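Severity: low
Component: inverse-folding endpoint
Summary: output formatting inconsistent between runs
Steps to reproduce: submit the following structure tokens with default settings.
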């Protein structure tokens, strides 16, 4: 995945609904504080996106566009993602606890 520049962020609002509790609030936290990073499979019209802060990552989109190598920046992190990401996460990391 590639890191996105702040100018790309408004287009990401549809990926993460606002007002979500817990780790789902990570996108709002990163937008409000600037403490974190935004990632996508490609800069224009992303198909998979992630937001990270500290050792937490929130991953959304189409897991079919990701390879295990593209998830390397998230090694050692706690990743929250829908169950459909389990195959690619299992290929990327030695330990996955669903």
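Observed output (run 2 of 3):
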């Amino acid at each position: 995945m590639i890191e996105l520049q702040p100018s790309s962020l408004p287009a990401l609002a549809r990926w993460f609904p606002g007002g979500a509790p817990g780790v789902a609030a990570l996108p709002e936290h990163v937008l409000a504080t600037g403490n974190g990073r935004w990632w996508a499979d490609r800069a224009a019209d992303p198909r998979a996106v992630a937001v990270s802060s500290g050792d937490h990552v929130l991953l959304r989109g189409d897991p079919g566009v990701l390879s295990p190598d593209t998830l390397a920046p998230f090694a050692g992190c706690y990743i929250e993602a829908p169950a459909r990401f389990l195959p690619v996460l299992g290929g990327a990391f030695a330990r996955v606890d669903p």
